[in-house]
Amino acid sequence: MIDFRMSDMQKDLRSTARRFANTFLKPYTEAADQERDAVKCFAMMKEPYREAHKLGFTHGFFPVEYGGMGLKNIDLQIVAEEICAVDPGFACILLVNGLALKPVEWFGSEEQKQRFIGALCRDETHEFIAGWVVSEPEGTACFDDPAPYPAGIKTMLQAVPNQFDYRLNGQKFWPSSQAGWDGKGADLNTLVVRVTREGAPNNLACCVIPRGAPGVTYNSLIEKYGQRSNQNGLSTYEDVKVPSADVFAWGDGDLVISKAFTWSGPVAGIAAVGATRTMYEAALEFAKTWSGGGAKPIINHQAVGYHLADVAMEIEAARYLCWKSAHYLDSWDSEGQAFGAFAKVWATEAMHRMAFKCMQVVGVNAIDKRQPFDRLYREVSTLPLYDAGNMGMQRRKVWGVMKHPSFDPQAFVMNKPVHFVKEMEGAGF
What we know:
The protein is an alpha+beta fold. It has 13 helices and 8 strands. It has 3 domains: 8-129, Butyryl-Coa Dehydrogenase, subunit A, domain 1, CATH 1.10.540.10; 131-252, Butyryl-CoA Dehydrogenase, subunit A, domain 2, CATH 2.40.110; 264-424, Butyryl-CoA Dehydrogenase, subunit A, domain 3, CATH 1.20.140.10. It has helices spanning 8-34, 38-43, 46-55, 73-84, 88-107, 110-121, 253-263, 265-289, 302-331, 337-362, 373-382, 389-402, 411-414, and strands spanning 130-133, 156-159, 165-176, 188-194, 204-210, 216-221, 232-243, 247-248. Strands 1-4-5-8 form a 4-stranded mixed sheet, covered by helices on one side. Strands 2-3-7-6 form a 4-stranded antiparallel sheet, with helices on one face. A hairpin with a 5-residue loop joins strand 2 (156-159) and strand 3 (165-176). Helix 5 crosses helix 7 (253-263), helix 10 (337-362) runs antiparallel to helix 11 and helix 10 packs antiparallel against helix 12 (389-402). The radius of gyration is 22 Å and the shape is globular. The mean pLDDT is 97.
């Protein structure tokens, strides 16, 4: 049955998320956006994070048996839109917990699930934070390049002779939350690492690095114009000891990357919807009250009316593509690599266009910092570039799935499973 109505539980989630975002989060966001020091800026988000943890927003998308709330991706859409209507950067902090630990849920052992996911979900300090550490200084979009080292991911996990441990060496650049609240490390970081010098597809695995591991340094954080309340930076690993019990998905790190950025695809899409929704509502109110020196408010001019009509229609279209994508992922255990990318690519790029239309309606007043457009436009312009990058990984996932002989063009509309296999990776190489 096709039904776009929210359940009572989802309505309660929406109300709680909206109240949290507008009454608790917003003052911290506005203050953090003015802070030039990236470490201090991120630390300012600790209190709203603690409150979000109490509400379950940091971990509710994990199964109940590990301490989560069992929320589906479609439920996460509802929460994320409300938080992103205020601050997509803060919402990214919550999302990264999923990017870091959903791979453990999908590919890890039962012991690893209880140990790592349980540590986040059952944390009584409400401060536990995880980092998703994939990107590297030379880029990571070509993680599935079949060419041998140095193509692809370079951070290397190597076995120690006559031991059950490994040694980790390399650098990671851009990952979110990896340096933690104080710049000295998240509680745990999930890394995608290289395990052989051969090329894709069987050269990658994942490992979990706890806070305080000897040999890890977190360097200067990146000063950014967007996603100010989200943290990105450089980390270095020098002969870091990694117990074999903290390694998973051996030879399948490529599948981990593809699936994680599939799960997050519609969430990133709905982030763009939420931020643009706030800009649209502000532009609509402005148009109904501002005359521009004329006799009537500018909403009475056809150009303004058409602009706002376009924005309203595209916000709705983007929202429902994200919902459809999330529903599909919930139906097939987050296996929908092309369709998660559908939502991420189309929604973020459409909302970028619509955000600027909102600013055109308001005109020069849109660049007045007393209006919400400055910060939110910076946020919306960032969204197509991050979370596996629309021109980096996301479109290539769609391409790889489409060109495979097994692809059914009607699978998405008919909610039929599309099993993602390694042969779908490496498009273009």
